């Protein structure tokens, strides 16, 4: 790296550090002048900041924090650039023939990571973007990054997903208005999060995975019950081709050997299922239980914490409301209790 490049980076970072003071240090008439300086600087360096190097996106992340709501004027340039970078990372991973055991050589992982860090700051500042249909392609790639070989990308994607679920809970809008609340996406997310537990994670990352799992499965279960979709055949026929493909992909990830065949069996023999539990959730819990025995102790704790949190929602009773009948208690009990029994054994 040349001396000129180092000096320009130092200048850019220094400008970010003091731009907040520039915006707030002058009386109101002069603040229009100071904002003009900041905006001119941004317009000049925006293209360079969104290049392949992570430093530019670090700078823009800082600018989001410093400028606050005034950064909104630049979203029209930044968000399409983020989308393109994330999609490039997905495409490069799909086409690479390199040995992925060395995650440092995975194409565009660093560019994608810092783009997601910046996106997280943007979403934290502009909550309305969680409902923006223009971001659907970005949410699709974030879902794919949950299974990315690089730990950093998996973790930051999981954190952004947690922010998304918090926005759903806090929003006055119906959950149906949020793109990721579609049943096929919720199931795919749950499967991807379950796969994350195959490798060790920190306590903080494990907690976020567990909370995201509880949200996705509990809302998926509520969707099935609220819409009376316990009959798999009628539910499947109500889906468009994109949602069907997403379920097929998720079942294949959950069980590469028998997943798709099991799904087709559920669709064709829907009369054979217990009407008190949806087979998609039942199969997910069954597969998670089997994966538990391949996990280390920390991952097992996450699974059992998930079971503890999800049980009241699946069993239809809470502290203030006892079970109404035996079917309420029996629902999903076998899948949840078997792993605990086997571990104790």
Task: Give a quick set of tags describing it.
345 residues; mainly alpha; 16 helices
Description:
This protein has 345 residues and is mainly alpha-helical. About 7% of the residues have low confidence. The chain is globular and about 55 Å long. The relative contact order is 0.06. 71% of the residues lie in helices and 0% in strands. Helix 8 runs parallel beside helix 13 and helix 13 runs parallel beside helix 16. The chain has 16 helices and no strands. It folds into two domains: 178 residues, no CATH class; 164 residues, no CATH class.
Assign an overall shape: globular
* Percent strand: under 5%
Tally of DSSP helical segments: 16
Oligomer: single chain
Helix/strand order, N-terminal first: HHHHHHHHHHHHHHHH
Q: What does the radius of gyration come to?
A: 23 Å
Distance between the termini: 60 Å
- The structural domain count equals 2
Structural class, from helix and strand content?
mainly alpha
Poorly predicted residue ranges? 43-52, 317-329
